[in-house]
Design goal:
Helices cover 3% and strands 57% of the residues. The protein is mainly β. It has a single domain, classed as Sandwich (Jelly Rolls), CATH 2.60.120.260. The termini are close together.
């Protein structure tokens, strides 16, 4: 049973290519709630998406803002098949991963298109 649904990213778009990764705010993960089984499900909603969305987790109580305290839990890569979508239809995908992460965040590189929303359940 899901404890909580959290939005990591919402309505992010760009008109030009970006060459550096950006990060969402950190959100409480399964390890923060202690009694949870550690299963997280992430739902991605994108449109004409070219880039990467990496869900990261950490066991640190007070993690750094850079990548030193974070590991990549799962990756959603938008390639030319998403980018070539010209009918304005949003693409949805879900992934599940397990870990007693204290904090969860999204690391993303948006080269083109729109990230409608990235949300996760734990």
């Amino acid at each position: 049973m899901s404890i909580k649904t959290t939005i990591l990213l919402s309505d992010i778009n760009t008109e030009s290519s970006i060459s550096t990764y950006s990060y969402s705010d950190k959100q409480k993960g399964a390890g923060y709630h202690r009694g949870d089984n550690g299963v997280h499900t992430v739902n991605y909603s994108v449109n004409a998406f070219l880039g990467d969305i990496i869900i990261q987790g950490t066991l640190e109580q007070y993690p750094s803002d850079d990548d030193t305290d974070w590991i990549n839990a799962t990756t959603f890569a938008g390639d030319s098949s998403f980018y070539g979508n010209t009918d304005s239809t949003d693409y949805q995908s879900s992934q599940t991963f397990t870990g007693k992460y204290v904090w969860i965040r999204a690391k993303y590189l948006l080269q083109n298109g729109t990230i409608r929303q990235v949300r996760y359940n734990l």
